[in-house]
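P.,

For your records, the input lines for the assembly:
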Amino acid sequence: MEEVDFETIRVGERVAVLEKAPITRLQLALFAGAGADHNPIHVDEDAAKAAGLAGVIAHGMLTMAFLGEMLSAWVPQTRIRRLSARFVAVAKPGDAITCEAVVAGKAIEDGEKRVELDLVARNAPGDKLQLGRALVVLP
Amino acid sequence: MRNLLGKEYPPFEVEVDKRWIRSFAEAIGETNPIHRDEGAARAAGFRGLVAPPTFPFAVVMEAGQSFMVLDELGVDKTRAMHAEQSFEYFSDLCAGDTITGRQKVVEQFDKKGGALHFVVTQFRLDNQRGEHVCDLRTTVVVRVG
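Structure tokens returned:
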């Protein structure tokens, strides 16, 4: 991993992008187990319909995991201080999610080189599914 | 809606093993070897296989506490949505760790003239070494009426 340079990154710069393969029902089943989220609307078509949905929907935490993956591919994970996301729309099986991180601000505070990032996860048509924020501390 | 502000839930303990971290990485399609290969994790300076950034939410789900507040409010879960999630990190979460978690209700408010009810709970996670690992904030929104 190439070290990110605090001096050269600019506010407004897109510093990271992650394109994920389309979400599959198998992935939702695996995430139900590994994420310990057994809500049937993510894996059981009948339960999803009974809840008024057109079909199963992805776990919000699966899409948020993609935001985390993008960040930890950009900087070593230990540099991530905070990560947050607002869930504005749901992902469905077949959706190929793309995540992006844009520099929202940078400052030296308490002797630390801090970078604030705006994060977004979109589906293929470009709908925003999650809007996030992260704070990373650079060396 | 019942006021639960300030309520604290009993602490819980969850053990995190290698298999769980590997299966989480597999499920999200994360290929970084620090989540799968112990040698790679140690070479990168971790005590063992390290959990991906959003894994702490799986820990609180495993404890069965994430949406406990909804049961207490008597809310039909199909009317509730996970609206927002945040993590603040203090130290690494690695395979072999026993995590102690403590949850409290930190905010509760209405929007849209009471049509939407928001509940925010905070979890503090510590490990068996006495280190503060992570704080999580979970915002759940309930459609009322």
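Two observations worth noting. The beta strands of chain A are 14-19, 80-87, 98-109, 112-122, 128-138. The longest helix of chain A spans residues 60-74.

Regards
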